[in-house]
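Handout, page 2. Input:
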Amino acid sequence: TGASKANILDVDDGVSQLATVQNDVMYYAANGTDLFESDGKFDTFSTVACLYAETCQIIASADSGIQTVADLKGKTVSVGDAGSGVEFNATQILAAYGIDINSDIKKVNASFGDSADSIKDGKIDAAFVTAGAPTTAITELATSGMDFSMVSLTQEAVDYLTEKYPFLVQENLPAGTYDGVDYEVTCVAVQA
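Output:
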């Protein structure tokens, strides 16, 4: 389907009886916010189980000089497809560092694969990828020989994000999750 929002709408319409949905999108639907601002509140679904974490990962070109989230300011950054859960996660993470997604970065909306290709081609400096790790697009980037880095969040930012957004949890990526990334990466995640 068209991802979490489409799945919630299918359950609401009776097209589906069971669906995989990110918990942040469920939160938006239950509260009539963000992705569901124009749709209103939904109370036609409930949670059955959490299956896996979808980690909010940030990849950066080695040539970009990006070492922290604060370094994204003024850079060209892919934040996922327009209106996607990834874009909302990027907005939340950037705001934790005082960075406005619409004015403080050169925002690009692109899929994970297109983002990885754009990093390889030097078209963007960094990209947000919210998905189960290891993620195919990042794995392919890592095995391509391209020099890139994974950007960690500070513990202060993680604490702020998990307190402000109850659907986010800390989910660190162990060293070796991707070829060439021999350090732990501090992240937050939504739950599928």
